[in-house]
Design brief:
- By secondary structure, the protein is α+β, with helices and mostly antiparallel strands.
- It contains three helices and seven strands.
- The longest helix has 16 residues.
- Helix 1 packs across helix 2.
Length: 130
């Protein structure tokens, strides 16, 4: 993989219950809403579970995902192609934390920041314009 090793750890407060945050991260139907315009591969289950594989793309950038760990308050995704590394999510009542590490030619901190802001908007009930 070409690129540089990057890592980013972000935590934000979100006015949402733990269960609402969990559903937003583990239910592909909801993921697709707040991660728009990122396109998702078809055939995803109603909820992510260990061993699920899927792809996303934004323009020509494609990222392959493998769901490594799903817990009551955590999600760990192994990434390949556009980013070779992992993305961990942790959450609780009123907060979400994201840890992303990998090799990429793209600025992963910027993408991670934008994703967390979109999640906050989505959970606050605001319309996400596309």
């Amino acid at each position: 993989m070409l690129g540089t090793f990057q890592k980013s750890h972000l935590r934000i407060e979100i006015e949402a219950a733990e269960a609402t945050i969990r559903d937003s991260l583990l239910c592909p139907f909801q993921l697709q809403k707040w991660l728009w315009p990122q396109g998702f591969s078809s055939g995803l289950p109603e909820q992510l579970s260990e061993g699920v594989k899927f792809d996303t793309s934004v323009g020509l950038i494609e990222i392959k995902y493998y769901v490594d760990v799903v817990g009551p308050n955590c999600l760990r995704l192994l990434l390949s192609q556009g980013i070779d590394g992992f993305h961990e999510w942790y959450w609780g009542d009123g907060w979400v934390q994201s840890r992303l590490e990998g090799i990429s030619m793209f600025p992963i901190n910027l993408g991670q920041t934008l994703s967390l802001l979109r999640l906050r908007e989505f959970l606050s009930g605001k319309e996400l314009s596309g």
